[in-house]
Amino acid sequence: MYAPFFGLKREPFSIAPDPRYLFMSERHREALAHLLYGVRAGGGFVLLTGEIGAGKTTVCRCFLEQIPKRCNVAYIFNPRLTVEELLRSICEEFHVPLPARDAAAPAKLTIKEYLDPLNEYLLTTHAVGQNNVLIIDEAQQLSAEVLEQLRLLTNLETTERKLLQVILIGQPELREVLARPELEQLAQRVIARFHLGALSEEETAQYVTHRLEVAGLKRSMPFSDEAIALVHRLARGVPRRINLLCDRAMLGAYAAGQPRIGRMLVRQAAAEVFDDTPPARAGASGFAPTGAAAAMSAPARWPRGAVLAAGMAIGAVGAAIVGWGLATRPVPSAPLASAPPAAAPAASAAPRAAPSASAPAADAASAAAPGGS
Predict the structure, then answer these.
(1) Are residues 156 and 118 in contact, defined by beta-carbon separation less than 8 angstroms?
(2) Neighbour order of strands in the sheet with 131-136
């Protein structure tokens, strides 16, 4: 949608694993080297872990392209399987023929009926100089029972190497799973392990630039340096989060007709794709949300005039309350010293409609005057 606006041939930040956008950082190259070493060393298990979206699948695809030709690969991407289902999947991936069952009594195969032809296949391929590699993605979901069966599969070996090599790829929880005491035997067979960390800020800038150039960018970089630094911080250096954030930021810039993407626009995009990011405010380097989005994201504020009017009204009410309290307070009477008898009836006969603050002073003055008038 926004690609022509930025002079691109295609959208650069799709989360699909397009091999054209392959970006191998130093960490990715180290992870690939560990996988290749595990295959050539003829060991048992190789472990690759990383956060969600860190690029584990990218490394695995690159590994499959560089794997030796005389190497048979079985790839299992849905590990939530029972032991029987796992063995059946492995046999299907290696194209191992299974014993036929009577159609009249289609009972399930036993574990032994899976293992016997699989072991025979491993021995036959080893005799002709072929290696066999089993790759299991999302391996943190494997049960302890399935992991133990995988360990037993690696028991088949020659004096030089094991006949089946297993590569476990998963999230960081996989390391915690293998640290359990009941899986100590399997953990001791891991000959190489690597944790794929996040990109650095410099690598994030290289990653964004690489994808834009592959997409056909010929003009200047649409993201400012400050925006790239903010992308790295908000995405935590995870490639998939970087893709989501940059894609939404470019879409927002296209909608606003702005060819340059600043920090505020990145913050606004992050508020839309990440739940843990506060919405952005308008600023010199960004654009505020409009319409319904603005109504939902902007904090509620009273107009300045309404605030002043409310303050004046509160002040008037307070003054009225104070005045009413003074008006209803009883006025103390001052003692009359040697007042003339003739003046007393006139003073007491004069009705007072309302007491005032000057009444006590007037009474005191008339009491002090000698003889009255």
Answers:
(1) no
(2) 71-76, 131-136, 165-170, 45-50, 190-196
Angle at 216 between CA 213 and CA 220, to 5 degrees: 65
What is the residue whose two structure tokens read 């107009």?
Answer: 303
Rounded percentage of the chain residues whose pLDDT exceeds 90: 58
Q: Residue 22 corresponds to which tokens in the numbers above?
A: 């392959």
Task: Note whether 227 and 266 are within 8 A (CB).
Answer: yes
Please identify which residue in the block is written with the tokens 């298990």: 45
Identity of residue 302: W
pTM over the 0.90 mark = no
Query: How far apart, in whole angstroms, are the C-alpha atoms of residue 56 and residue 73?
Result: 17
pLDDT digits (tens, 9 = 90+) for 116-163: 999 999 999 999 999 999 999 999 999 999 999 999 999 988 888 889
Distances (CA, A) of 93 to 72, 82, 90, 111, 268: 9, 16, 5, 17, 46
Contacts of 118 (CB under 8 A, 6+ apart): 87, 90, 91, 94, 96, 153
pLDDT band at 351 (very low <50, low <70, confident <90, very high): very low
> Cα(223)–Cα(253) distance, rounded to whole angstroms?
10
Looking at the DSSP assignment, which residues form a beta bridge with residue 134?
74, 166
Tokens of 122: 């491993």
